[in-house]
Amino acid sequence: xxxxxxxxxxxxxxxxxxxxxxxxxxxxxxxxxxxxxxxxxxxxxxxxxxxxxxxxxxxxxxxxxxxxxxxxxxxxxxxxxxxxxxxxxxxxxxxxxxxxxxxxxxx
Length: 107
Fold this sequence. Notes:
The protein is an alpha+beta fold. The chain has one domain (about 5-95): Ybab, Chain: A (2-Layer Sandwich). The chain is about 50% helix and about 15% strand. The protein contains two helices and three strands. It has helices spanning about 5-30, 65-95; strands spanning about 30-35, 40-45, 50-55. A three-stranded antiparallel β-sheet has the order 1-2-3. β1 and β2 form a beta hairpin. α1 runs antiparallel to α2 (about 65-95). The longest helix is centred in the C-terminal third of the chain and has 31 residues, at about 65-95. The relative contact order is 0.15.
């Protein structure tokens, strides 16, 4: 039996599409966190890379040093978005067996 017959190929593609949809759903429900300044600023994002929440401890707010707070927020956001990209790459590799598919989560 030829595994690349049209019917088999369509089924394989449909199965992969279902798996990809499940993976995207799982990533959307996943919550990742990162912090900066020893936990003074925390960022939360979904596994898809959507920023969900920023938490800033009151003692991090110094009106005389706004730049420091901006840097902490930026650091926490960058870190959590990097974690989301890494999780996406890991899940995509699991789904595709390591094959890079252009356009899938920025691959």
